[in-house]
Design a protein that fits this description.
434 Repressor (Amino-terminal Domain); 20 helices; 8 strands; Four Helix Bundle (Hemerythrin (Met), subunit A); alpha/beta
Length: 467
């Protein structure tokens, strides 16, 4: 989402070259930062406040020895971005018995889907959530929530034909206590615009049941209107936090920077994809480093721990070491990579990747296209061929090529690359054991020892083989 802003800020900072940050050499940089923020749809009063804060901190600041002005400016801009985005993680308040979370927002913001995503997240954290269908006006709203509930295996509380939302919430609380549900997620009604009737209903729920969380769901692609919506809801209900959806979309990102500043309410959760597990806690510091192109390794590792099955990974490693890696195993790995998120999202979390948005999009698109093509190739094989790649001779390749409608050369090239990858994986698995054995002296790996030299020679041979 922040690619455009990120690219511009990185370019501006790289071009700052001087021994000291002064009023003169900062003027051009600040002008470009202001322009980049406005183009990213950041609210004007937010831009003014942000630029003023940077100017106050930067002017006349002496450069630390060994740190150039652009690095110093990165530090100042990073600190101000963290401040602007809310300083630190603000976790959900789940102190109630049961805890009540009101999901608020206009139609189309992704409120119902976000409710389901939140239920998935809470389940992972050991909670027992209950979805409550409080949107009794929008056609098929209850059916949509029930479909999502079935998909994620979370019960949805509804009262057929009842239009009294207070009665629905009261019944849900009683039901939750009788059935050991400890978090109620209220999917309230949205409108195409804020109106008196909508607010009156929400105010009654707020006053009567006193929910621990009142979360406004905002579409990150809304732009400036997001600020107006957030301020209106906050003035009427006193929001406790924000949920920003479509953070992975191709928007300019200004709303995320603006709503926190204008409402004083933290972004608590962000939607980063269409899948129902794509709702994450919002860490201002991590987002700031991503905007400035410094990556987000912590989030990348956390996502990997969620997605990758440790037992399955061990099984695959064992197969690799014995050169038994099959096309079926390749498909399993590919499925896990898909759960990880888009290639563009992964690239955004890697530090030091000085590539623009267009290149990221191109890499993401090409990798997705290539993976889909590989799936078609493998699906055109027999079960026996998928499990035993070594049996695929020229006649089988011809049949596979015909089955998926491509030239024989493409299948030949794919199988050749797969065999090279399999050999490399086997070699790396073997090296892992060799390096571990070479470092068993208690002093770690020693490249000058007999075992260490043997391991290093083996590594060099393998690298030469795959040049």
């Amino acid at each position: 989402m922040f690619e455009s802003l990120s690219e511009k800020l990185q370019g501006i900072i790289r071009n700052t070259g001087a021994k000291e940050l002064t009023r003169d050499n900062m003027q051009d940089a600040l002008r470009e930062i202001r322009r980049a923020l406005l183009e990213a749809d950041v609210n004007l009063r937010v831009v003014k406040s942000f630029i003023s804060a940077i100017k106050d901190k930067a002017e006349g600041e002496n450069i630390v020895e060994g740190v150039n002005p652009s690095q110093q400016l990165i530090k100042i801009v990073n600190d101000e971005l963290v401040e602007l985005l809310g300083k630190e993680l603000k976790p959900l308040d789940l102190s109630g018995n049961p805890s009540l979370i009101m999901m608020l927002g206009l139609q189309g913001a992704g409120k119902t889907t976000s409710s389901a995503k939140l239920a998935v997240k809470l389940k992972k954290e050991g909670k027992n959530p209950l979805l409550v269908a409080c949107d009794v006006y929008r056609p098929a709203a209850i059916a949509q929530l029930q479909t999502l509930g079935k998909e994620i295996d979370v019960e949805v509380y509804t009262v057929p034909d009842l239009k009294d939302v207070q009665g629905i919430v009261r019944g849900a609380i009683e039901y939750s206590r009788a059935n050991n549900y400890n978090v109620l997620i209220l999917d309230t009604a949205g409108r195409l615009q804020i109106d008196v009737d909508m607010m009156a209903e929400l105010l009654l729920i707020d006053r009567i049941f006193n929910p621990q969380e009142k979360l406004l769901v905002i579409d990150a692609m809304t732009g400036q209107e997001a600020v107006n919506v957030a301020e209106n809801f906050d003035a009427q209900l006193g929001l406790t936090g924000l949920v920003l959806t479509k953070l992975d979309g191709d928007s300019r990102g200004g709303s995320a920077l603006s709503v926190v500043h204008c409402t004083g309410k933290p972004i608590k959760l962000t939607g980063t994809g269409e899948k129902l597990n794509a709702l994450e806690d919002f860490y201002p510091e991590r987002m700031a480093t991503r905007i400035l192109g410094m990556g987000d390794i912590v989030s990348l590792v956390e996502r990997a721990q969620e997605v990758f099955d440790e037992k399955q990974a061990q099984e695959l490693e064992e197969k690799m070491s014995k050169d038994k890696f099959s096309f079926n195993d390749f498909l399993k790995m590919q499925k896990q990579m898909k759960m990880f998120g888009s290639m563009g999202n992964i690239l955004g979390m890697l530090p030091g990747l000085n590539i623009g948005k267009d290149m990221k999009d191109k890499l993401s698109y090409e990798s997705e296209k290539q993976f889909k093509k590989m799936e078609v190739f493998i699906q055109s094989m027999t079960p026996e061929e998928r499990e035993n790649p070594d049996i695929i001779d020229n006649s089988r390749r011809k049949r596979i090529a015909k089955g998926c409608g491509v030239e024989l050369s493409e299948i030949t090239q794919f199988i050749k690359q797969f065999n090279q990858m399999r050999a490399m994986m086997s070699g790396m698995a073997g090296l892992k054991g060799m390096f571990a054995h070479a470092g068993k002296s208690g002093e770690g790996f020693n490249p000058h020892s007999k075992q260490g030299k043997h391991a290093m020679n083996k590594a060099m041979k393998m690298m030469r083989r795959f040049k």
